[in-house]
Amino acid sequence: MTLPLSWLISFSFALFAIGVFGVVVRRNLIFVLISIEIMLNAVALLFVAGSTLHPGSDGQVIYLMILAMAGAEVAIGLALVITMFRRWHSLDIDLLSKMRG
Amino acid sequence: MSETLLLLLIPALPLASAIILLATRLNRLAVSCLALSSIGLAALAVLIIQLNTASDFSPIQESWGTWLEVDSVTLNFAFYLDGLSLMMISIICGVGWLIHLFSVAFMAQDTGYQRYFGYLNLFVAAMLILVLADNLLLLYLGWEGVGLCSYLLIGFWHSKRANNMAANKAFIMTRIGDTAMLIGLLLLFWQFGSLDINHINQQALDLPPNSSLVNVSCLLLFIGAAGKSAQFPLQNWLPDAMAGPTPVSALIHAATMVTAGIYLIARNATLFGSALEVLNIIAIVGTITLLLGASAAMVQSDLKRILAYSTISQLGYMFLALGVGANAAASFHLMTHAFFKALLFLAAGALIYCLSHQHNIYKMGGLAKKMPWVSTAFIIGCAALSALPLLSGFFSKELILSHVIDQGHPWLWYGAVLGGFLTAFYSARLILLVFFGPIQQAPDRALPKTMAIVMASLILLSIFGGMLPESITRQFPASTPPLSLITHYLPIASPFLAIALAYWCWQRGVFTRSITSPIQKTLHTLLLNGWQFDQLYHLLFVRPYFIITQLNRHDIIDGLFRGIEVTMIMLHRLCSKSQTGSLRLYNATIIVFIVISLAWLIIGGTTA
Amino acid sequence: MIDTIFIISAIIALVCALITVTHRNVVHALLFMVVMMLAIALIFYLLGAPFAAALQIIVYAGAIMVLFIFVTMMLHQGQRSIDQEHQLFSWRSAFLPMLLSLTLFIEVIFLLFTSDHQAIPVAVHSDTTKEIGILLFGPYHQLVILAALMLLSALIGAIHIATPTKPALGEEI
Fold first, then answer.
1. Is A24 in contact with B576 (Cβ distance < 8 A)?
2. Is B575 near chain A, with CB under 8 Å?
3. Which architecture characterizes domain C2-124 according to CATH?
4. Which stretch of DSSP H or E encloses residue B80?
5. Residue ranges of chain B with per-residue pLDDT less than 70
């Protein structure tokens, strides 16, 4: 049984586009992090599809690394979210404009 | 001692003493001894060479060492002595020594005594290098050296601004000539492959006459000579150069530096001989200058300015002689002019010294009885200047005039004779106003013995200098061309007519009368300002320059750089606006950029 | 049949993602995200990567999402947060970003369809776990070390950042 590669790639990129949409439009910091996770998932999907396409399991190893990276990033991101909440009691990212100019 | 060693010593001694004088502090006695002895020893060396080579003379060549060595061209500090340069160094060292002696008395009270003698010795050294140089580059070195010393000595009393301006003017105007000369040197090098004077002159014989390159380079050299020797149109620095001490005027602006231009052309006689157009130009310029100088000298009130214009005029005679190919006559007149003009300047210096720095001849009068030495000196000097018979000036001027008419230039001859008439006229005017008539200012100081001795020596030279035996003036052939009655006797008679006219005017008080009619007034002003060349140059060059600097008031070139700066600041402000600190904006910018890049990739056709 | 399953899971994943991104309630959004990850895990399994599918569920949905939920628990203030969110997200302001991501998607699809592509066989590998293990201990062992280091630094960083600083007298937090 075969699956057309174009389907996979389109699906992956649709997911990625949704993630991009989320990053750009949401003002809550947690939602931005969630959208970033969606983008990471989309890319991981591509890698696994690649591992199936080519002989060997290298794609899955990379998927593992992506996973590790996502975990590390979420940990630190959420720590920053906590710090922000402690400072402003709100998660609006427009408050993060101290680097103006 | 061998001649070559003497030849090397002659420029070296004044140079060494100049360095010592300018670099150390000595007391007055030491300075006088050092300065006088250096020039004296050089003069002695010249005398020895003269005596040794009286019977047979062949050119001597010697060098201090190598100067430049580039590819196949070698230039040395080499000196070359032939008849012409031997005559020149005799004048420089002889008259120079007399002037040094005079300066000891003249500058006795001056605070810059040591500096003065340092500069003076440096000048003599540079002039000797110029005259003795074997190649044109060394000559140019001496040329620049005398220009420098002239600047230093004109502006010697530098606390007065007018003196500085005069020194600047002299230097800048001669610089214009020097630049032309340098270009001429480069052209000569390009044409002949070397700057050796003998080499160039020999090569010039092989070329066809009137070739354009030779013409152009000779013209450029002549412009250099005209600058240094104060010819039209670069002549108006010389009257202002009288701001320096009078012995300086005697040495530099009468006997030596201003003759450098004539020496240059006489030295390269063969080269100039094949540039016939340039010779015509030289003759015409010489005539114009001699008339210009003589006419301006008629109305001056400053004693030294009369002598300055007179120098300009006499130099014009020398250039006229060069222009018609009479190099021997020009050199002869150079020598006699050195004698009587130095005498006149030194006598003027003595007069100024004794009258406590009074320059205006209208304020002098009747000094013949009070100052016999000075008046005798002046009268003899002016007589030689006017070419009265049997004095030295007579022989040289007659030689020039006879060559002019012989080569077939009637108009130039008329101009020269008219110049002679004017020369006698203004000389007589000078003597009558200063030495005869009622006394207005009596001399304050007595004439120092030194000055009297110097003047006496120059008086003798002015009288007998024209009759020096052939062995001393070995450059000059005795041949005088045949002349008709008028051409022979008119120039002899015209000075007497001029003197009579001047006496008649003086009796009538024409000289001291105030001028009423406007035509006379404009003419008088014109002549008084040396035909208004200063004003002309101011109009032609200085005013446009000032206008340009006014236009550039805000400094356009700097504005370009300031514009860059302003643009950068504007761009910075513009770009700073994008640093809003808004996270969403940054995200959005990144995504938009990615979209645009992809679009560009698609449209660009590269899908890789 | 595998096509059908794939399409269904894909649609589920896309819909859940959309809802996640546009929902106003954080907790609901997180739950929808977990569903999305489950759908993706299913697709992994279909592609013949059971190890990846397992990891997706265990690590991604099980650990990372739980981290999110922990933090939300700490910071969520109930109805007040949801109302705040109404302020912060509106469909009017979402028009241009939607256009942007749509453009991105269309561009990539265009690039995709103008190049030649092939079909993927979906044979199920056997012993994929063993193979991955061999790879990890073999050619990719350095990656493992790097990942471990990265996690360690993330751990330390997170602790450091999230530790509350003792405020000095008069200084606001």
1. no
2. no
3. Up-down Bundle (1.20)
4. strand B73-81
5. 1, 54-56, 468-483, 605-608
